[in-house]
């Protein structure tokens, strides 16, 4: 939101306070300022001058040499403009001025000195396109800057909207000035709500149907308007706040929005089909042209303004095009209303239309301003080119006219919450300055909230604490150490385990942790078929890609991998997160499950299956090392089948009877669906099951003291069928109870013409350790022979 300091000064004398102090008070006690800038400061050196003489350039057919004066000094200017003559008053950019990124210089054009440049409307930012130099009226003062001429000498504050989203009273110049006056102890001129306007008797035929769809709704008839451009004051103030001037009637509505924060709307009465107005809910498929030249198909239950049987506006959001004020308008109907913020928010969400009016309505306005704003609008219309209009009595209703909010509290509560021993006099003085009415009975306080803050803003005693705290300044509250017992925190095994696993993945092996939203699309929900039926739809509708709570962490990791696949050679990711599952439609809450998921993108070509398989084995070894790191060595890998894993490339890790983890290569069907160009190896670990096992067994010491003798190893290559599991021979060896056998794992898998079609060569590595003597050649041969014999006896072929 943009605020004009010049406009604020109209309501309270900010010029009496150093500007730095004003900015400091805003930042520390009211809201955040994003930017402070002098409006169009680059035009300070563009002045009004009068052309005294004009003659042809001696060396250029299309140029003219002119002499212009600012009243005290003459300037020689060379120009190509053909629309200027002696006696014209025009804007002159002096040397040093920057327009459209170019600096104006004192230079020579074809041998004749030019001390500046005459400007067009486009160059001054007054129009998108223009031809020729801008010529001012004959009575224009010369020798002044165009900033002063157009009332642009102003400082503009850009307020961070997020910091005032709970303060609808601050979304306008008068409300902001009122707040500054209270904080800086300045007087406040509250004339906008006290416009002295007399209405013509009668309603001029207008009527309003009372309904519960609005807090308040009024219309009044205004006759004999004349559509012209707005006066310079209104035009400049709208422009400084980022709103384009349209005409002297529509501009008044926008001016009121910026001045008082109360949206209004003008209808062309002669283009309306009826004299009756009502606030209704839309039916599915309703449609009418809007001011933005769109004709959207409306969903059910959007709030509409209806004239007779015809919809003429999206209530609180945007008016209709067919009833809009146009150049030929003579009679208008003014609307002043306050709608329920929930209804306006619903319309914004369903139509994706967000206007300045809607932004204010959705914060929750109070209806007490509806009638005073009509009087102020009439005053502005008269000042802005319509002095002879006839205005008839407003018609309508106000359901919340008598609403009031009174908060009961006491000094003990306020002091305890603030952490400061503040006096009753100081509390009363601060609250009264802020517009509250305070009644005291000893230490008990009864506080009547001002109407402009009673809706959703100040409603409970804690809100009063905030008002007092921000006014005295949080920096004035002394920091004190907490007085509390130092107790041993309750141990959280799951958090401990998660921290260990994350440390291993991030610090030990260099994987990168990612964070994804807990939302998913229907496509994402189908990845793990087993969980698709338990997907949970979000009631508060979101875009389709975020319409469900996720039932798997895999889609998020895959999307992250897709974004990074062309940027990095190595993409190794993991995520710790929850999935959500609701098995039936009963009233029970959905179940949350905790996982760590891992993704590693292959560095090799997708059709290089041998290399991809080696990467798969490396990740399997990494997960095995993780379980060793957690002091859980007694796990088993076994083959599995999952719809999202490639056939014959899926494993599960079990600990006893519990399935703790899975590992597999993403099926090419899903890789294509998510536009992955490289093979993805996926794994996930069930943290809730793992923590149970870790608590029971992870604290048991499996430490074996290192041997004094060197370690040995043996390799054995076997020829197997392509689909045969590599675990079968490893499991067989473990049953042989070889005392020196420390571990056995697959070292390499080879395929090629030399091993035959449908075959693979699997090399196993046996790590050997003796604790009583050094290995001898005889013992190595003995062990090697026993492994070969076991392989032959069980149908395995040596290679």
From TrEMBL:
Keywords: Aminoacyl-tRNA synthetase, ATP-binding, Cytoplasm, Ligase, Magnesium, Metal-binding, Nucleotide-binding, Protein biosynthesis, RNA-binding, tRNA-binding. It is an enzyme of class 6 (ligase). Its EC number is 6.1.1.20. GO terms for biological process: phenylalanyl-tRNA aminoacylation. Binds 2 magnesium ions per tetramer. It is found in: Cytoplasm. Mg(2+) binds at residues 457, 463, 466-467. CDD domains: tRNA_bind_bactPheRS. Residues 40-147 form the TRNA-binding domain. It comes from the Bacteria. Its cofactor is Mg(2+). Residues 707-799 form the FDX-ACB domain. Its main location: cytoplasm. One of its GO terms (cellular component) is phenylalanine-tRNA ligase complex. It catalyses: tRNA(Phe) + L-phenylalanine + ATP = L-phenylalanyl-tRNA(Phe) + AMP + diphosphate + H(+). Residues 402-479 form the B5 domain. It holds the Pfam family FDX-ACB. The keyword Transferase does not apply. PANTHER family: PHENYLALANINE--TRNA LIGASE BETA SUBUNIT, PHENYLALANYL-TRNA SYNTHETASE BETA CHAIN AND LEUCINE-RICH REPEAT-CONTAINING PROTEIN 47. Tetramer of two alpha and two beta subunits. Belongs to the phenylalanyl-tRNA synthetase beta subunit family. Type 1 subfamily. This is Phenylalanine--tRNA ligase beta subunit. It comes from Leptospira soteropolitanensis. The gene is pheT.
